[in-house]
Amino acid sequence: MWLWVLVSRTPPCDNRIVTLRPGSESPALHILSLDPVPLAVWEWSGASDAQHSPLVFAHATGFHGRLWDTVIGALPGRHAFAVELRGHGRSGKPDPPYHWRAFGSDLAMLVRALHLHDAIGIGHSSGGHAMTLACTLAPEAFRALLLIDPTIFPAERYTEPKLDASFTLRRKNRYQSVEEMIERFRSREPFSRWNPDVFRDYCRYGLLPDGDHLVLACPPPVEASIYAESNAPESNIYPEIARIEQPVTVLRAGTARQPGVFDLSASPTAPDLASRFRRGRDLSLAGQSHFIPMEVPERLVDEIRKIA
Asked: pLDDT for 188-230, tens place per residue?
């Protein structure tokens, strides 16, 4: 059921936030009226003090904040936020192009609007790129970063021609039900390798109502633009990376992308990325694809516990 109910309580963090709660689900949905794009963020209530850093999650291109449900559910009692980046989920969707630095700027504005301090930033893929840049723009908000196969290419990739992501424009964008989407992708790669609960959340929260049908919460033209801009020169954030003081863990997939091959299952992360941070730590997961949070969410839970 696609009914959003306005909660009467006023969120304590900022008067620019409208809070919604979908049915009986546990996380609250906040819509932040940030300039120039309103951003959605899901909040799980829990401990947030000197011994319990809040957790901030940022998803990959084409995904949404509720893909973190399984991970957050395995960390009961922790105060957690899962942002939906511009163009995704319930956040604003301006027309393309989508430049990558905007995601980091949005995330920095969001953590400041929420008055977060000493949080652990957890970002996957393009969310890892955004989390890294946000840490340089709002360093007081973060105590540590966990970057899960972040889309931060080897430096030379930012001088190459833009990637051709036109294939995303052919994605099926209209569904009659969530179950239709589940049946369409259940047995296909990479979804067949995903944790079943994560896969169901991907479908359940990855569709939005549009008249008498459902559409993807990240429209195909938005997704195509994000991929096309991923290796644009202005997406190179190595100068910012060198300034980060916080400890950073880079969790990489075992298979690297090959030049000229746009394989979404292979790792886009520069193999030496961890060494570019002042306090970087590199972990490579042999046998895992780029979709680490979807394949082995329990591995992320273990790493978050170590950091936290």
From this structure: 999 999 999 999 999 999 999 999 999 999 999 999 999 999 9
Q: Which residues of 17-26 are buried (b: 16+ CB within 10 A; e: fewer)?
A: bbbeebeeee
Nearest to 245 by CA among 113, 102, 143: 143
Q: Sheet containing 17-22: which strands, arranged edge to edge?
A: 4-6, 17-22, 28-32, 39-44, 80-84, 55-58, 119-124, 142-148, 248-253, 280-285
Burial class (CB in 10 A: 0-12, 13-18, 19+), 229: buried
Contact indicator for 179, 199 with CB cutoff of 8 Å = no
Contact yes or no for 233/129 (Cβ under 8 A): no
Residue 27 belongs to what domain range? 4-307
31 touches 17 (CB < 8 A)? yes
Task: State the CATH number of the domain containing residue 296.
Answer: 3.40.50.1820
**Residues 6 or more apart from 258 whose CB is under 8 A from it?**
266
Q: How many domains does the chain have?
A: 1
Which stretches of the chain are assigned E, i.e. beta strand? 4-6, 17-22, 28-32, 39-44, 55-58, 80-84, 119-124, 142-148, 174-175, 207-210, 213-216, 248-253, 280-285
- pLDDT of 306 over the 50 cut: yes
pLDDT digits (tens, 9 = 90+) for 128-172: 999 999 999 999 999 999 999 999 999 999 999 998 889 999 999
* pLDDT tens digits for range 225-264: 999 999 999 999 999 999 999 999 999 998 877 776 778 8
Contact yes or no for 20/4 (Cβ under 8 A): yes
